[in-house]
Design a protein that fits this description.
The complex is a heterodimer.
Chain A (H helix, E strand, L loop, with lengths): L2 H10 L1 H19 L6 H19 L5 E3 L11 E3 L1 H23 L1 H4 L5 H18 L5 H19 L6 H32 L4 H10 L4 H19 L7 H8 L2 H27 E4 L5 E3 L5 H20 L5 H21 L3 H32 L10 H4 L1 H15 L5 H15 L3 H26 L14 H19 L2 H10 L4
Antiparallel strand pairs in A: 1-2, 3-4
Helix pairs in contact in A: 2-3, 2-6, 3-4, 4-6, 4-12, 4-15, 6-7, 6-12, 7-8, 7-12, 8-10, 8-11, 9-12, 10-12, 11-12, 11-14, 12-14, 12-15, 13-14, 13-19, 14-15, 14-18, 15-17, 15-18, 15-20, 15-21, 17-19, 17-20, 18-20
Chain B lengths: L2 H25 L7 H25 L5 E13 L3 E11 L1 H24 L6 H20 L3 H19 L6 H32 L4 H9 L8 H18 L8 H4 L5 H10 L1 H11 L6 H22 L5 H21 L3 H28 L12 H4 L1 H15 L5 H20 L3 H25 L6 H6 L5 H12 L17 H5 L20 H5 L11 H4 L6 H34 L5 H7 L1 H8 L4 H75 L4 H19 L3
Antiparallel strand pairs in B: 1-2
Helix pairs in contact in B: 1-2, 1-4, 2-3, 2-4, 3-4, 3-10, 3-14, 3-20, 4-5, 5-6, 6-8, 8-11, 8-12, 10-14, 11-13, 11-14, 12-13, 12-18, 13-14, 13-17, 13-18, 14-16, 14-17, 14-20, 16-17, 16-18, 16-20, 17-18, 17-24, 18-24, 25-26
Chain lengths: ~500, ~700
């Protein structure tokens, strides 16, 4: 191996290295400071900031790491604006979730084991940032597994209630089955093409005749693994059970960060493996071996419809948000189904909006349930009067989730639907719009509970620390701010939508 | 000071009241004295706008400063190309004068309200609302494009709604708020359609860009008729907001709001926004559109003046007077007297604001008595209010040495010149008649309120001069109603600086759609030189504004118009004194003699009743008809078919029992089964989930059919 190349490769994967180093530091700290675990979350935050800085430093680069000179292109890891964008998303989500964990009563209850907690979280982060940049099937599988294994443990980490362990167990069984299928798919794909590098597979697909049926079979199996992470229908069944059972910070984390990684991986998999060339209007000309568009549209529409319709009947806030996040996965997939650069950047923008509003909503729900250990929809009755500083931001998040202006959610949705309309997928847009209407119902139901359902005895205001209030207000402020001044962020996303 | 810092100054002035609004709204309940912050903020805004005005008028007097930014980038739109929606700020002399007027009156109303609203249960919220109103109004003023105007237009509508219905416990107040909002809605729909016509054709909302397109000979959908339509439709927004016929009905009712609000919103600023809008689009108005505008304004002014003659509620008189004066301004824009229309807007803002605040002072001291028949003799009790009120009355009547004289006289000369040039003499005749009526009803108001003997001794005994916080704004506004602030020569407004600051913009409409007298001289020559294929010739003539014909015509009638208007105003005042002061003519007997006319005026020409009859009752009739149709026809058919069915039923009964029921039960069984399986799907059993996944894979494979 060429050492100059190795050196460059190492400098390209500095963010990943930094995460790994801090993972070990967290473990070491945990061992050294037996009793006092106060510093660990701050160490975790520091690691994220350092990594974030390294990602920003890599921002302009389009390169790959660990390329083998004998092969035509690509190595194991791609370093491009696209992966950097998603790395930033993951880091942002992780930072918020660390604050989240610091004030969650569930995590406070396992104070003694918080070293392990943050170490496992770092495991997830490492898996995720590898996922968004992996261009080799083997690394893809490894990173997915790294993410999965850490999150299985975290889902049942607190062991406070039976349902924690139940969630963890369900997650691990379901996840193993899904990843088993994915591995099977990967091996079939390797068998067909003799390559694991996505670009090489792309090359072979363009030049060689391959048994279409077997190929489709392998692709669908790989899609199962990603659809499981994205909680796309019909691979979503674990979602409500695990979300409800897992501790709230982990639920929030799973609903945002691991989805981001899976989405980025799916986009890259589709783009690098199956796109013949990109035409002048930014539409992807697919190699005609597999009908991605139909698959994605059908899955997307099913996902959003089922998510929204089922959310209508939920009484538990976590379950409601779980189904809502399934529905949002549907919108995201619909944006990808356009198979164009515009669709891809719309999805990326949507994800940023989704990150802020979803984490914000979970944050408020966490603060409420911290107080009374309840998560039912009736527990927020009168919240608008007892704690307006929580209720107003929650309302903003909900309005944004529903996609009503002037919020970031609206801008993102508009951008996404515009991209879909541009591709002449009118029926799909109509169904998606109807879905949005349905979703307004259950989001506004929460508003009604907060502001109109007064309960007889006045509720005491929920005690919230200043940090938490600030974070929630900042998130809500961002939603409104980007809802009005969105050009720069759209510009940023467009520039980031460049794959290796 | 550079242009960009002038822009940022304007933005600061705009945002200050918004900040005040949020702070007072959120924390007003907790900190009782927070309203002082809002008052302070508005005072700062006033000082800043004076400074901005000073800079603009000294350093950039002939420049139009525009700053734009892209709000929405729509990217590459098929058949159009790169499409962006820009927002921006435009500062010209009109803007800067309006900034001053709005912030000044707003600040004075703030001070006045501290005393007037004392003890109100929603005291701080009131100031928050004033803040959001000021913000929205300033937004209209500094906008450089129709979209932004539209946004802030709706925001002033909202704040007006909030303030009219401020005492929402009173049903009449909350009804009036709703009426104002809904009536404005009708105008706004037209305005929105007009804006969209322009946007569809020019892909921009910016005034300057639209005007550039038009002056390059591009008219909407290739026809001047559409240009006229666009102008009239946008003007519809002004009809609603400036309470022109036939949408004027909301303004008198809006007097249910607190009186300082009436002064700020429903006399001085918001209702003038319509006039301001027409002034902004003045350059793109075709001759037809201008004629429509002039007629609407003229009809409104005489119509409202005729109602004001007989009203007894002091605020109602002032409200109709406002409608009438707004009609004046609109009429003036329609006849092309741009400068004087805007001049009248400014002078009217001051003296009408003063009249309303003065009436507020009276109402305050009379413990919320508004009926003039219960007043009288107040000049001894409230000397400051009386004198300032009198100055404003002189101004509105157009007596020399007042501001109103300057603007009104020029405005009437403009209509006269228009009559001379086009033959539409009805418009100046109406204009002068209204001048007579205005002087009459205003002095009727003054005499009934302040002169003579008190008609209600009890209330009179308790009346008192208002506190300083209320009288000082009156004095400031009264001094601004004196000519010296506008021109050194009290009979020649054209000598004043105002006249030099505000010039009518160049018209950009194609030659053939202009008034004869507005055509540019270069037109005749152009036929021989460079004729472009569209037949439009705007590009060649853009250098010449109004031809000088209109200026000449106005100059020619300036002194006759002035003399005539003084005579008419004098006559009006004389009649008022004859009837109400010296009682030489018995007002009641006159009313008896002119019973039908009197009733018509007293009942406001029955417009509310007509609307109620024409629209509201018809709507109810329609609903009744539907209900009748339902009850008679539909039910009849149902009943008939019931009889019929009963006969058939026996036959089908058998069929039903065995075949249909069988099917229904089967369907129910199937859907129940499906429902059950749907419910069962989320079993909580992970092994079943995995089975679903495997089946899904198979189904997907079958659906995609890759073989």
């Amino acid at each position: 191996m060429d050492f100059a190349n190795l050196h460059l490769s190492l400098s390209n994967i500095l963010p990943e290295i930094s995460i790994a180093v801090f993972l070990m530091l967290v473990v070491g700290f945990d061992l050294i400071f037996h009793e006092d675990k106060k510093l660990i979350p701050y160490l975790a935050l520091l690691g994220l900031i350092v990594t974030g800085f390294l990602v920003v430093r890599n921002m302009g680069i389009t390169d790959s790491a660990f390329a083998v000179t004998s092969m035509n292109s690509g190595g194991m890891v791609a370093v491009d604006p696209f992966s950097n964008y998603f790395k930033l998303i993951i880091i942002l989500a992780s930072v918020i979730v660390i604050f989240f964990s610091m004030s969650s009563s569930e995590i406070k209850a396992i104070y003694k084991r918080s070293g392990e907690y943050y170490a496992l979280m770092y495991g997830m982060i490492l898996g995720m940032i590898l996922m968004v940049s992996a261009v080799d099937l083997i690394l893809i599988y490894l990173s997915v597994e790294l993410l999965s294994l850490s999150s299985y443990v975290l889902a049942g980490f607190t062991k406070l209630r039976n349902r924690n362990s139940e969630a963890s167990l369900k997650y691990i069984i379901y996840g193993s089955a899904a990843s088993g299928m994915m591995l099977y798919g990967i091996s079939v794909l390797y068998g067909l093409t003799g390559a694991t590098n996505l670009f090489e597979i792309n090359n072979i697909l363009q030049t060689t005749q391959i048994n279409i049926f077997t190929l489709s079979f392998s692709i669908i199996l790989i899609f199962v693994g990603l659809g499981f992470k994205l909680s796309a229908v019909p691979f979503h069944f674990w979602t409500p059970d695990v979300y409800e059972g897992a501790p709230l910070p982990i639920t929030a984390y799973l609903s945002v960060a691991s989805k981001a990684a899976a989405l980025a991986l799916l986009i890259r998999f589709v783009h690098s493996t199956f796109v013949g060339y990109v035409d002048t209007n930014g539409f992807w000309d697919m190699i005609s071996v597999f009908d991605w568009q139909t698959l994605l549209i059908v899955i997307a529409l099913f996902t959003m419809t089922l998510g929204n319709l089922t959310a209508l009947w939920q009484k538990n806030l976590k379950r409601l948000l779980a189904y809502s996040s399934i529905a949002h996965a549907g919108y995201l997939l619909l944006g990808l189904a356009v198979l164009s650069n515009a669709g891809m950047s719309a999805v990326m923008l949507y994800f940023l909006a989704y990150l802020i509003m979803n984490l914000g909503a979970f944050y408020v729900v966490m603060l409420v349930s911290n107080d009374n250990d309840k998560e039912s929809i009736d527990d927020i009755n009168g919240l608008g009067f007892s704690s307006p500083l929580l209720a107003v931001p929650l309302s903003i998040f909900l309005v944004s989730l529903a996609g009503i202006p002037p919020t970031f959610g609206f801008v993102a949705k508009l951008n996404l639907f515009a991209a879909v309309i541009d591709a002449n997928l009118i029926t799909a847009v109509i169904i998606a719009l109807l879905n949005t209407v349905v979703s307004v119902y259950y989001y506004s139901r929460l508003l009604k509970h907060m502001y109109f359902n007064k309960i007889e005895d006045t509720v005491a205001a929920i005690k919230v620390s200043k940090t938490d209030t600030t974070i929630v207000l900042i998130l809500a402020g961002l939603i409104i701010f980007f809802g009005i001044f969105f050009n720069n962020v759209i510009e940023f996303v467009k520039n980031s939508a460049q794959l290796l | 000071m550079s242009e960009s810092s002038l822009i940022s100054l304007a933005v600061t002035i705009l945002l200050l009241p918004l900040v005040g609004f949020f702070i007072v709204l959120l924390f007003g309940k907790r900190f009782e004295h927070l309203y002082k912050l809002e008052v302070g903020i508005i005072s700062v805004a006033l000082l800043l706008s004076i400074y901005a005005g000073f800079v603009k008028l000294t350093s950039y007097v002939n420049d139009t400063i525009i700053a734009q930014f892209t709000w929405i980038d729509l990217g590459n739109v098929p058949t159009i190309g790169h499409l962006t929606v820009n927002l921006g700020i435009m500062i010209d002399n009109v803007t800067i004068i309006m900034l001053f007027v709005v912030t000044l009156i707003s600040a004075l109303v703030h001070y006045f309200s501290i005393a007037y609203m004392k003890g109100d249960i929603r005291f701080s919220r009131y100031f928050a609302y004033l803040g959001i109103f000021t913000f929205s109004m300033l937004g209209i003023v500094i906008a450089d494009n129709l979209l932004m105007i539209y946004i802030f237009w709706e925001l002033v509508g909202l704040s007006s709604y909030l303030l009219i219905g401020f005492w929402y416990e009173k049903k009449s107040a909350s009804d009036a708020g709703m009426k104002a909002f809904l009536t404005n809605r009708i105008g706004d729909i037209g305005m929105f359609i007009g804006i969209l016509i322009l946007f569809t054709n020019y892909h921009t909302f910016s005034f300057t860009e639209i005007f550039n397109h038009i002056s390059n000979g591009v008219v909407p959908f290739g026809s001047n008729g559409w240009l006229t339509a666009a102008g009239i439709l946008v003007f519809m927004g002004a009809i609603g907001k400036s309470a022109q016929m036939p949408l004027h009905v909301w303004l008198p009712d809006a007097m249910e709001g607190p009186t300082p609000v009436s002064a700020l919103i429903h006399a001085a600023t918001m209702v003038a926004a319509g006039v301001y809008l027409v002034a902004r689009i003045f350059a793109m108005l075709t001759a037809d559109a201008m004629l429509v505008i002039a007629v609407v304004g003229a009809v409104t002014s005489i119509f409202a003046a005729s109602i004001a003659l007989t009203q007894n509620d002091i605020k109602k008189v002032l409200a109709y007077s406002t409608v009438s004066q707004l009609g004046y301004m609109v009429m003036a824009l329609g006849v092309g007297a741009y400068t004087f229309a805007f001049f009248h807007l400014v002078t009217h803002a001051f003296f009408k604001g003063l009249l309303f605040l003065g009436s507020g002072s009276v109402i305050h001291s009379m413990h919320h008595e508004q009926d003039m028949r219960n007043m009288g003799g107040l000049k001894r009790k409230m000397p400051i209010t009386y004198i300032t009120f009198l100055i404003a009355t002189l101004a509105i009547s157009g007596i020399p040495f007042t501001s109103g004289f300057l603007s009104k006289d020029g405005l009437l000369a403009g209509t006269w010149a228009f009559g001379n040039l086009t033959g539409h003499y009805l418009i100046p005749i109406i204009g002068f008649t209204v001048a007579l009526m205005t002087a009459f009803y205003m002095f009727r108001l003054v005499i009934m309120t302040f002169h003579g003997e008190p008609r209600n001794q009890h209330k009179y005994d308790h009346a008192h001069e208002s506190p300083k916080l209320m009288t000082i704004p009156l004095i400031i506004l009264a001094s601004l109603s004196i000519f010296i602030f506008y021109t050194p020569n009290p009979v020649a407004p054209a000598d004043g600086w105002f006249y030099n600051w505000v010039k009518a913009p160049q018209t950009v409409v194609p030659e053939e759609a202009r008034f004869e007298f507005m055509k540019s001289e270069s037109h005749e020559i152009e036929g021989t030189v460079n004729n472009d294929s569209h037949g439009g010739s705007g590009s060649g003539s853009a250098t010449i504004t109004h031809s000088e014909m209109y200026e000449h015509a106005m100059h020619a009638v300036h002194y006759p118009a002035m003399i005539l208007s003084i005579i008419l105003a004098g006559l009006g005042i004389l009649f008022a004194f004859l009837m109400y002061h010296w009682k030489k003519i018995d007002a009641d007997k006159l009313a008896e003699k002119l019973k039908p006319l009197y009733n018509l005026s007293y009942n406001k020409w029955y417009v509310d009743e007509i609307y109620s009859f024409l629209f509201i009752e018809r709507l109810l009739d329609f609903s009744r008809f539907i209900s009748w149709f339902d009850a008679t026809i539909v039910d009849g058919i149902v009943n008939y078919s019931a009889t019929f069915t009963r006969g058939v039923a026996n036959i089908t009964g058998w069929f039903d029992t065995y075949i249909v029921d069988g099917l229904v039960n089967f369907t129910a069984f199937v859907s129940g089964f499906v429902g059950l399986s749907f419910r069962k799907m989320q079993t909580g059993k992970v092994q079943t989930y995995i089975v679903y996944v495997v089946f899904s894979v198979i189904i997907i494979l079958l659906v995609l059919r890759p073989f």
